[in-house]
Predict the structure of Alpha-L-fucosidase 2.
Amino acid sequence: MKLQYDKPAHVWTEGLPIGNGRLGGMIFGGVEQEKISLNEDTLWSGYPKNGNNPGAKDALPKVRKLLQEERYTEADTLTKEMMGPYTQSYLPFGDLLLRFEHGNICHSYKRTLDIENAVHSLEYQIGHVIYTREMFASHPDQVLVLRLAASVEGALNVHASLDSPLRHMTGFREDRFVLEGTAPEHVDPSYVASDDPIRYGDPENNKGMTFEGQLAVKTEDGQVTVDGRGIHVLGATTATFYFSAATSFNGMDAIPGVEGKDASFIASSFLDEAVAKPYDSLLDSHITDYRVLFDRVKLQLGNSPAPEQMSTEQRITTYGAEDPGLVELLFHYGRYLLIASSRPGTQAANLQGIWNAVTRPPWSSNYTLNINTEMNYWPAEICNLAECHEPLLDLISHLAKKGVETAQVNYGTRGWTTHHNTDIWGQTAPVGNYGDGDPSWAFWPMGGIWLTQHVWEHYAFSGDETYLRNSAYPVMKEAALFALDWLIDDGSGNLVTSPSTSPEHKFRTAEGVAAVSPGSTMDISLIWELFTNCIEASEILGTDLDFRKELVSIRERLLPLQVGKYGQLQEWSKDYEDEDIYHRHTSHLVGVYPGRQLSDEETPELFVAARTSLERRGDESTGWSLGWRVALWSRFREGNRSLRLLSNMLRLVRDGASEQYNHGGVYPNLLGAHPPFQIDGNFAASAGIAEMLLQSHRPYMELLPALPDAWQQGNVSGLRARGGFEVSIRWDNGQLAEAHITSHLGLDCVLRSEDPIVVTLDGSVVKTEDTDSNIISFPTSAGRTYRVKLS
Ligand code: FUC
C-alpha cells in the first residue's frame, strides 16, 4: 500500500498527491529545494453567469428539418447557433517552497506515499544526519501539516515561503507568512488560440474570487523569524509547518464581490485551531478519520514478484499488470484519490481531481459531463465510499436547479438539462463560444440525463428511501420531463433525440464527416436507463402512477437499438461508417456499463453486437478509455481481456508526452495519463477491477464474474452490491472458495452462479441450488452475514 521512489520528482507527474477533499498538495520531495504544489478546490476563474442562448430555440426546428432531409454537414454547421460560452477553469493556488541549507548531496534517499494512512514521508542522509519529513492533509483539521526533523540536535536550517502563478501579494502578519491573491475573471480553455487568455478584473471592481493562504510553524528549539520573504527556522531539531487556505467562493449563485466569504478569516480560523494541537494528535485524528473510509475494502490478487524496495516507477516498467500487487495498488490508489479529492461538503472531483499546477490546464480542468465526471464516481458505491459520492450528488442538485432555465430558454422544454461541460458556477448551457466549437462535443444536452444515474445508484446501493423520495427522485423526474419533451417522432412512430451526437465521434456521409444525426444509440440508451430508474423509483415510492405509465409507454416507443453490417451495435440510427473505428469514446456501449439496458439474458443479440463493437474499437486508447474498457469487458465476463486492458493502463507514460489519443497509461506517480494527466483513468481502473470481482446491476448479484486466469488465488472484502449488501469473496484455483454476504437492509438476496452453490447462516443451510436454473434467491435479515460456497 505504498508508492515509493528513490529520487525526488523532477516534474509534477512524478510528485505525490495528498488531499483532504478541499486542500491538495503535490509533493516533489526535493532535497535542497522542496516544492509542494498547492490547491484549494473552490479556486476557479470567473464569476456567476448562465450562458443560456435564446437563439437556440430558433435554430432547433431548422436543424431538425435538415436532419430529416439527411443534410448532415449543413445540420452540423447550424447546430453551432445553439452553443453558449466556454466554462471557466480550475486554477492552481500556488506553491509552498522550502529551502534547506544543507545542499543537494545526500544518500539513502527515499520518499513514500503510504495510502493506508494517507501520509507522505521522506528520508535522506547528509553526512551522519538523517533528515525526515512527514506530510498529510487533514480532513478533521482542514490544514496541510508538514513535520521536519533532523537526527542531530539543531541541524535543521530551513526557509519557507509561498508563491502563486496568480496575481498575489505576500507578506507577514505576526508570526504567519501570508499570500493574498485574486483569481482572473476569465481564463480561455487550453485548446483556444487567444491573444489574451487570462483576464483579471479592474482592481477596484473585481468580480473574480479572492483567496488567501497562511503558513505557520512550531518548533521546540532553534530560532524562528518571520519576515516579508518567508519563515526562517535556524538551528532547530524539529519543525512543524501548517498551511491553511480558503477562497471567497460563496456558492454558484452569490453576487460577485458582494456576498463573498472572508477567505482570510476562514484560513486563519482553521490555522488557529490546528497550531494549538500537538503534532501527534493532528496525525492521529487524520489517520483515524481517513482509515474509517479506506479500511473498508481489502484486496489480494496474488504474490507480487517485485522486490520490496523496488520503486513504483520501476515496478510499472518491469512488471505492469503482471504484478498483482501493482494492480492492488492501482485499485486502492483510486480509492485513496477519491477520499483525497471528494469529501462531503467539498467540490466534486474535476478532470484532475483537485490537483492542478497550471493556469490554463488541459480542457480547463473542468467537469466534462459526456464521460469524465461520471467516470470519476464509478468506484464510489461499489468500492464502499458512498460518502465520497456526495459532492457529485450535490453538484447534480445545483445543476438540476440551474438547468431548468436552460431547458426553457434554449429549447422551450420542461425539466432540466445540462450540456458537455460545467464548472464551479454551474454552467448548464452548451459550450463552444457561440459557434467556435465543434458540435461533436460542444452540443450535448444529455448531461442531466446521464448524471441522474448517479442519484439512482446512490439509492440502489444504500436503499435509503428518504434520500430517494426527497432528493433523488425529484431530480430524476425533472430530467425525465426534459427527455420527454426533447424526444420527437422520427416519422415512422419511433421516438428519437434530434439533434444528437455520439459524443466526440463522427460518421462518414457522402458529403464528408458529420457529428449530428437523429437518435444516437447513446442518447436512446441513456434515456432508457433514466426512464427505467424513474419507473422503479416511482414504484418503490408508490407515487406518480400516471407519469410512470407515460414513461413505460414512451420507453416502448424509443427507437430500437440495431445491429449493423459488421455485426456491431450501431452507434447511430443509420449504419454509417465510423470516422475512426478505434475512437476512444465507447458511448454506444453505455447500456452495457455503467448502465444495465443490455445483457445476455434480456437482449442477447444486442449484447453480442455490443461485444463486437468493443472488439472493433481495439485495446489501445487514452487512459480513461482503457479504464472504461476494463469494466466493459468485465460485463462481458471476459476477465482475461479486462486484465489485458489493465496491462495497457499500467504502462509508463513520461511527462511531456504530448496530448495523445491512442497510448494512455500512468505517470511515474501512478496518476492516469490520457496523456495529459486526467484523474478519471484512475477512478475507472478501481471501478473496473471491482466489476471484475462483483456485479449487481442485474436483478441478481454475481461473484467473480470476470476473474482472469492469472489471478488464481485471492480475496476481496468490503465491496458493496446493490440492495444494501456488503460482500467478501475468497477464491482458490480460479474458483469461488467462499463468500460472505452481509445484508444491511434485510432484502432478498439473489445470486447468479454457473456452478451449484450452497448458502448457510450460522452453519445451517439457508438455500441450496435446487433447480436447473443458475439463479438462487434467499431471504435475509438485516445485520446477518450469509456464507456462500460451491456445493
Ligand atoms: C473529452 C474526451 C477527451 C478528454 C476531455 C477532457 O473531450 O474526448 O479525450 O478526456 O474530454
